[in-house]
Amino acid sequence: MRLGVAWLVVSLLWGLPREGWSRPQRPTTKDSGIASCDDLDPSSLIVAIERELTSLRAQPLAKRVDLGRVQLSNQDYLDRLLLPIQTAARQGKRALCQLLSRRIKLQPLARRPGQVTAYYHPVIRGSRRQQGSYQVPLFRRPSEESLASQPTEAILTGALAGHGLELVYVESLAIALHVHIEGSATVALDDGTEINLTTDGHNGHPYQNPLRLLRGDHRIPDDFPTAPGQSKTQAFITAHPEVLREYWNKNPHFVFFKETPLRGTGKFGELVAGRSVAVDPRHVPMGALLLLRTQVATQADSSTLAGKSIARLVLAQDTGAAIVGPGRVDLFVGSGEEARVAAAHTSYPGELFLLLPRRGRR
Question: Is 79 domain-assigned?
């Protein structure tokens, strides 16, 4: 489906939704449109684009976008989209918005709103040695295929023990699963140093969301107590590790880790908070520039959560086992308490569009 209709481009790029999913109104003044065409400071967009340049330049003729008649190599994508947008972003939001409205068209990636979640880079405590409260290991990837292909239930009952694969020990099974889900972490070690971890592949088994299975079986009491900003599910599995083990065993997919100098890594290096998204690469080209319209959970006060509407340019720089389908998006939100709350509670409908240069414009 082509989107050559001017009002649709303007309505999508030049206004944030205010309540629910009503179509945003056309701004009444040029300044109000400039203020709302992208809700983040352009500096983060500049950095996110910069992350990709080396990789794309290394293979200039490789195909980046293949959508019927729209065929763009890496070099085409750089010259006609990424570099002009990065240049405009350096000139400020006004120049960026003008470029978007005049030279860009939008290609919808799903026929209906998809699901948007958020993930973050946690900072946790750990130890290189199994001691005291640090009893649950995160594992390196085994070099032997017979070990690397073990399912979760076997690993949790000791299939990898005694092979020297323990990378670090954390304080609970709930924290270990949390790192598996988020895909990265900074570990503050008990010797006063820190290490960053990122994923190093998985065991090759299909993914099942153990927390979704737990909720689907209604094992969590409606009145189970939670701390401010904490999800009921997280509170329950922290208090009941035996139940967590039962449901984690139902997910045969298991993730391995490695050390990295970076905090939060994707396909192009370090992720950029608010700009990097995980997508399904079968439907969305990796490295693609996208427009995302959705909401992100925020902590309004000590007991209230709210959804903040966003409309911004993001880049497809990561993947995930649970990110399946053309409308499925996971937004990287960085580190810290605000990011933790967003990651724990963001689950909203969202619209995702691929940015493309208008035909005949360079």
Answer: yes
